[in-house]
Write a structure and sequence with these properties.
CATH topology of the largest domain: Rossmann fold
Number of strands: 13
Strand order of the largest sheet: 3-2-1-4-5-6-7
Order of helices and strands: EHEHEHHHEEHHEHEHEHEHEHEHEHEHHH
Distance between the termini: 8 Å
Strand content: 5-15%
CATH architecture of the largest domain: 3-Layer(aba) Sandwich
Number of domains: 2
Number of helices: 17
Amino acid sequence: MDTQKLNIACVFEGDIESGGGFQTQLSTILKLSKNDKYKITAFTFSNKNKELLIKHGLNVVCLKTSIFDKILKIFSLQIWFQILRFKWKTTFEKSLDNHSIDLVYFLSPSSLALYLVDHNYIYTVWDLCHRDMLEFPEVNYYREFELRENLYTSVSKKAVAILTDSKLGKDNLVKRYGVDSERIFNISFAPSINAKESNFINIKEKYNIESNYIYYPAQFWAHKNHVYIIDAIVKLKNKGILLAAVFSGSDKGNLEYILGYAKKLDVEHLIHYIGFAPNEEIYYLYKQSLALVMPSYFGPTNIPPLEAFVIGTPVIYSDLDGLREQVEGAALLCDLKNSSHLVEHLELLINSSEKRIELIELGYKRLEELQKYSIDQTLIKIFDDYSVKLRCWKSL
């Protein structure tokens, strides 16, 4: 271990096609790696992630889960196992020991925290949507609700600190899981590092789009509410206004339904599904669109509005608790029960360049305000406070 430096393991999970969550992890760890005050080591479980992180100059440990790990995880959640206080460790925790890790930081919600025996950790909670919007199959069916509930019940109280991205998220952690409020930190997660200008790409030409288009980068989950956009496009078409939608993101089981829905309503020619958007196209997909339209039911915050603010693209967003607070007057808000509300907003942007400019300026200002609560500044404070306590039982 480097002397005088807190040795931090940043656990980097997921894959690049998981969207905003993956990019948030990458942006965060790259920010932390620039601070020479700490030794940052990335722990991941994917060779693709390993290659990506090494490319960005990070120290990386890539691990594989063994059969012993799987058996140990089953036993470690049993009451009898906990009572007997066995000290068996997973491959992951043994690797933490081998690298003299002082503190573990989970960049995303992770079940690995459940199995740590003698390592303190910082935990990340993106959302509690299995409680907020439990109707949706992706957070309810096949015991997904129980898995999430058990995870947050167990890991949240034991965390040195919890990072969440809104006051609503903090309040719900306190109310639902009894977490001490002083251990919960509200931060603004970092926008994607891929949302940058590169060699020019004409999006309309590449994807054969003949009209203005709106952009929605979202995986195809039910809660992403693509049908709301299609309903609005139908209503615009009936008024003689042709507006296309570009959808990017991987299929999570709802793509066939969405494309079939568009075909059924005779607007499939206005829906352009481009799959997972290449990094070099992201800036131009936003920049050349009429607006980012994100009618998601899940929050309390999302990454695409922040990316739109950075690039200078108007935002149309869900009028829901948490989500409206994220954009704080810098977006047009939609009643998700009425797609005519989205139609009104789109007509306004089509007909008023002044309104588009106004929203772009408001987006810049809102982003500036959110950056006052940036994740790296908050983490530095948490790391420093932990270092003081760590000296009571371990030398740095």
